[in-house]
Specification:
Residues 47-331 form the Aminotransferase class I/classII large domain. This protein is 43% helix and 16% strand. By secondary structure, it is α/β, with parallel strands linked by helices. Helix 3 (54-64) crosses helix 10 and helix 6 (129-138) runs parallel beside helix 7 (160-173). It binds pyridoxal-5'-phosphate.
């Protein structure tokens, strides 16, 4: 049997490719920050309801068109989500609704904080709102967690019509929406729909991150919501890790002031658009109607395929065919896949056009049982 392990196509993590990180400019800005305020960045930040570096919150406020009082900064958006889950689950009940599939780490966080997670099937234009209505009519959830722009793992973008209908349901049935938007600015095709927070600021807590638009290594993520909730998150944060890193926040603030974030977004969009287009074409050829959507941005395309193999058998056959996949079931509440289907998340951002095509064709062979 051929040994493919050294050349497996890695359809695994959503990590930005090195080519889009503007490391020289980041290093220059960091040096400037170190020269200008060495004591502040190497000292503890003030405590007592510290929602984050003031310059950074002012810049983020400008970027999002919101009052900085409504912003809380943490060490990456996953940590924001953890604090938010701690704050919301229990206070507003234990039921949490998510898209199915959803971001696996988010699902794990909700479960760790005692959430009972129920999935709402994700369609090509967003969650199935009939299913959502049935669920919320029976029981008000603590919140509905959604990734409306270029969803991880499916790549789906929620249509404007669905966004408006979703916030209508949130108002009618009195539930909160948590929208997670790290990929929103990475749009390669089409026009952006309004954010859920723009449509219903009173019903929506937003979380976002500089990981995909500047640098994941800086670990800067943030929440936008009502000022009281942001203070409560700061109190939870202080009891856990005091404050977010002063150095990382100062560099992030400078990168926003200097326009480096915008240049970095432009660089990512220019570099990733051809990868997106080629990935959509290759995935369409390989999976036909199984392709969940043509995302128009972000990092992922995905497919639901029918197979009589178990997931473990499918993953093993994929490796024999030269492809490493994440376990698709991990993206579903209760790890339960739709009956008779397997879910394939295909991150395209870090793969050459050739590698993506090779990987998609190999998976099509596994689906068709040409590989055993
Ligand atoms: C939807 C979503 N939310 C949150 C995160 C975590 O990002 P951060 O680096 O800001 O912690 C990711 C990372 O891949 C993600 O895809």
């Amino acid at each position: 049997m051929a040994d493919h392990t050294s050349e497996l196509v890695p359809f695994t993590r959503g990590v930005p490719p090195a080519e889009v990180l503007l490391v020289d400019e980041l290093a220059k800005l960091t040096t400037q920050v170190l020269e200008e305020s060495p004591v502040a960045v190497f000292q503890y930040a003030p405590i007592g309801r510290n929602r984050g570096d003031e310059r950074l919150r002012a810049e983020l406020g400008r970027h999002h068109g919101v009052d900085p009082d409504r912003i809380f900064v943490s060490n990456g958006s996953l940590q924001v989500l953890d604090l938010l889950a701690r704050h919301l689950i229990g206070r507003f009940g234990r039921s949490v609704l998510t898209e199915a599939p959803t971001y696996d780490r988010a699902r794990q966080i909700f479960e760790r904080h005692g959430g009972q997670v129920t999935g709402v099937a994700l369609r090509g234009d967003g969650a199935d709102l009939d299913q959502l209505r049935d669920l919320v009519a029976r029981h008000t959830p603590a919140f509905f967690y959604t990734i409306p722009d270029f969803q991880n793992p499916a790549g789906v973008c929620m249509s404007e019509e669905k966004r408006r209908a979703l916030v209508g349901l949130a108002r009618q049935y009195g539930f909160l929406i948590v929208e997670d938007t790290p990929y929103r600015r990475l749009r390669y095709r089409g026009a952006a729909a309004p954010t859920l927070a723009e449509l219903a600021p009173d019903r929506v807590l937003t979380i976002s991150s500089l990981s995909k638009v500047l640098s994941p290594g800086l670990r800067v993520g943030y929440a936008i919501g009502d000022a009281d909730t942001m203070v409560q998150l700061a109190e939870l944060a202080e009891g856990t890790y005091l404050t977010a890193s002063p150095l990382a926040q100062a560099v992030a603030a400078r990168a926003l002031e200097d326009g480096l974030v915008e240049r970095s977004i432009q660089r990512a969009v220019t570099f990733l658009a051809p990868r997106h287009d080629a990935a959509v074409e290759a995935a369409r050829e390989a999976f036909g109607d199984g392709l969940l959507s043509e995302p128009g941005g972000g990092y992922f395309v995905s497919a639901l395929v029918r197979s009589d193999l178990t997931e473990a058998e499918f993953l093993a056959a994929a490796e024999r065919a030269g492809v490493r996949l994440s376990r698709g079931s991990a993206f579903f509440p209760d790890e339960r896949l739709p009956a008779g289907s397997l879910f394939l998340r295909l991150p395209f951002q870090a793969l050459s056009l050739e590698a993506f095509r090779r990987g998609a064709r190999a998976l099509a062979d596994v689906v068709a049982r040409r590989v055993r």
